[in-house]
Amino acid sequence: MTKSKFSIHSLVDLVWRGLRGTARMIRVAIPRLYGLALLLFICWLTFLSIRYLVRSLLVPTQTPEQIVGIPRRMEPELLATERADWKAITAAETPRVPPAHYHRVDSWIEPDRFNDCSRSGCHGPLPHSKNKAVRAFLNMHATSIHCGVCHMATDDHPLKMTWYDLDTGAAQAPPAILRLCQRLTEINREDTEASALKEQHRELVALIQRTSKDLPNASALEQLVEHFEAVRPGSKAYQRLLDETQTIIPRYFRGEYGAKLALKAEDGVPILAHPDTSDDVAKFLAQGDDLAPEQRDQLLEKIHPLRRDSAYRCTECHSADASLVPLSQLGYPTARIDALSDPIVFEMIENIDAGRPFEMPQFITPKSDN
Ligand code: HEC
Ligand code: HEC
Q: pLDDT tens digit string along 102-134?
């Protein structure tokens, strides 16, 4: 009985001492392990920073893709790419266009894969180069107007025109951005009636969403939708957002509609090519350089059966009355029609192009006494 009492007692004592010993060991080990880990961590950091220093001094750094990942020229091959292929375009809030050829470099021009003039490999998407005075203007038009509008013969006045979808080549209604712009100018800022404001808010969000669907990667528009959803219609923040929207939206004009204008055939289909010319185009591309000048000209004539002798002058479209382009029927907002129809700027460019003397407006030149 005593024997077993003793052995239980000593067993408990043994276990107790064992536990105390282990606890002491853990207490001593924790700071040491901590110290060791800290030492290793500091060594690792030192190694990383020295490696970074040596690398940055010895290895030349590459310019980031976000800066250089942009096509240099608007060549026909670009038509085969998606804009998401170009990092510099997706990285920026307002995407940039290829820098060469075209002065406005703050937004993206969408490749037109249904334009047979450039899809064939014959013409570049921004084809004008001969006439310095107007080439940038003409190339700008080529981003939102099919070549045929200016270059194909027709007796219609005004021209019969339609928008066509750049993803399918089919005729479509005017782009949502034009309706959005018109809607923005019609907004009555004095309106305070809750249900009218709610309706206005809903309509704007829907139109911005549709516009941003037409323009993939237009992240500024997606953000705009988020901001609209976060503000109360009629509040000060809402008014500020309306101002902001009125500034942002026109930045997407000119070549960023997700659609382009073309002449329209009797059946309503856009005219995007000279008919039945694919064999001659192939022949020209294969042998064009080897042909004698007259044969070459004959073949070019056959490739362009609908061609006008000369393209239209600026003021045939940019005029307040009798414009060739039925702007309001094509869905252009009133303010934009006014800007496109006021002939002052367009007449001036036409005059410069025709080599007539360019006179500085009187209010700019200093008054002379004699
Ligand atoms: C806004 C009307 C307009 C559009 C759109 C347009 N052009 Fe032109 N194009 C002109 C005018 C005007 C000229 C004559 C320029 C001059 O020499 O004064 C011209 C000239 C040309 C020339 C002669 C060479 C040169 O460098 O000027 C070619 C080739 C040409 N256009 C092809 C095209 C192609 C291809 C497209 C479509 C991708 C196109 N054009 C779209 C108006 C237009
Ligand atoms: C076939 C008709 C047509 C001809 C010819 C034409 N334009 Fe245009 N132009 C338009 C249309 C349509 C627009 C609007 C395009 C858009 O919505 O992107 C436009 C837009 C413009 C703009 C942009 C205005 C802005 O505020 O965005 C300028 C500048 C311009 N044209 C100048 C000219 C000059 C200069 C010429 C002659 C060298 C010319 N246009 C010939 C139809 C034409």
A: 665 566 777 888 999 988 888 988 889 888 888
Residues 124 and 74 sit within 8 Å (Cβ to Cβ): yes
The per-residue pLDDT for 44 is 97
Residue 157 predicted with pLDDT over 50: yes
Measuring from each residue's beta carbon to the nearest atom of ligand 2, which residues come in under 6 Å? 134, 137-138, 141, 144-145, 149-150, 253-254, 312, 314, 316-318, 324-325, 339-340, 346, 349
The total of other beta-carbon atoms located within 10 Å of residue 86's CB is 21
Ligand 2 centre and the CA of 340: distance in Å? Answer: 7
Which tens digits make up the pLDDT trace of 163-188?
A: 999 989 999 999 999 999 999 989 88
Pocket of ligand 1 (CB under 6 A): 117-118, 123, 125, 127-131, 134, 138, 141-142, 145, 147, 149-151, 311
The rounded distance, in Å, linking the Cα atoms of 277 and 53 is: 62
The closest residue, in CA terms, to atom 37 on ligand 2 is 314
Q: Tell whether the model's pLDDT for residue 189 goes beyond 90.
A: no
Residue with tokens 């957002």: 241
* pLDDT tops 70 at residue 6: no
Instruction: Summarize the confidence of residues 254-273 as an average pLDDT.
Output: 91
82 vs 1, higher pLDDT = 82
Q: What is the largest CA-CA distance in the chain?
A: 139
Burial of residue 5 (number of CB atoms within 10 Å: 0-12, 13-18, 19+)? exposed
Give the mean pLDDT of the chain.
87
260, 111 Cβ separation under 8 angstroms: no
pLDDT band at 217 (very low <50, low <70, confident <90, very high): low
Q: Which of 318, 324, 338 to mutate to test the pocket of ligand 2 (most atoms within 8 A of CB)?
A: 318
How many Cα atoms are found within 13 Å in the side-chain-facing hemisphere of 207? Answer: 19
Residue 333 burial (C-beta neighbours within 10 Å; 0-12, 13-18, 19+): buried
Ligand 1 center from residue 127 Cα (angstroms): 7
- Copy the structure tokens of residue 127: 């084809």
Please check whether residue 109 is in contact with residue 86, taking contact to mean a CB–CB distance below 8 angstroms. Answer: no
Half-sphere exposure of 80 (CA within 13 A, CB side): 5
